[in-house]
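Quick illustration for those who missed Monday's session on complexes.
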Amino acid sequence: MSMRTRRRAAPRAALTNLLELDLDAAERFVRDLGWPRYRAQQILRWLHRRRVRDIQRMTDLSEAERARLGTIARIGRLEDCQILRSVDGTRKYLARLEDKLLVESVLIPDADRLTLCLSTQVGCTLDCSFCLTGKMGLRRNLKAHEIVDQVLTVQDRLEAGERVTNLVLMGMGEPLANLEAVSDAIARLTNSSWGLGISARRITLSTAGVAPRLKHVAALGVNLAVSLNATTNEQRDRLMPAVNRVYPLVELLAACRDYVLLPRQRLTFEYVLLAGVNDTEQDAKRLTKLLNGMRCKVNLIPFNEFPGTPFTRPTDSAVLRFQSVLRRAGLDVFVRKTKGRDVLGACGQLGRLAGDPEPALLTLAGTSC
Ligand code: SAH
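Prediction with S-adenosyl-L-homocysteine bound:
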């Protein structure tokens, strides 16, 4: 067998996926090749900034270096990206991971913002009763590069003049149940020497309330959102059993009070409004007491329905009544606009249950690319 044939036959799995490497790993990789250290940053820059999918396009490497790299490495990206477009401009991206599972990301245009909502797991560790992802169970944690690749994949498909302004880790999964990969992904996304250089102030991590890990979010420098969703421990046990049994409401709120905010930063509390369940006047009053004195704002999220759920969305006037109780108590409170419901791209609508059709078969205006 000639050298050439043997090279071509190298199994894919034997090749290093360059996108998996963080800076340390990339530096070790180039050192093993006997290359100067700065090659590592050059390679990472090509991957993250130029989003190249072909090693041969790394033109500040010599031809011989590219040829060598091509025999031992590859660029493994998300594949078969499909876009579902909502009538309101929201876009849901479904892309395939190497093990064929699907990862979902949602791009949400709003006034001068273009927010990209990233997933951190396929499925979710938790079992919140109002969330479709929770019904799927956990398929697996995403790796750091799979979180970063959601950004690259969406950027590859932006329309002329568009720029992602904000990132939210609020898609499928519980970010603090996959803390290592999430921290690594944030470090890569915010890196300004070779990464995208996204400001940590424009990134928000949302947690169902893994209390002891909140401090790690502060260390990452990103904003923290906590999904409170209930005002008594019993109610939270019913709505968010897995997380609340381990970290009950009082413990979560204590961790929030201990959370060290940067100047001008504040905590966000999310509160899904479920008709007749947690949207009463008493709930609103209890909520104001729970948050008393905290530097925070509240995002109310009227429940987004999905097939088979016992919950319903409150009327607009019920939402406004709830909001006005909080306002009167001096809280900054916003109602999150519902976006992307027609493509199952709104909060709590990500994921599919066993037996659901593949997205391509949905009767939605999907476009593949
Ligand atoms: N696990 C993280 C991030 C994913 S959920 C967390 O719990 O924060 C993102 C947000 O969507 C959370 O605030 C959650 O409470 C909310 N959510 C979940 N299901 C929803 C639904 N069906 N309708 C409206 N909001 C929902």
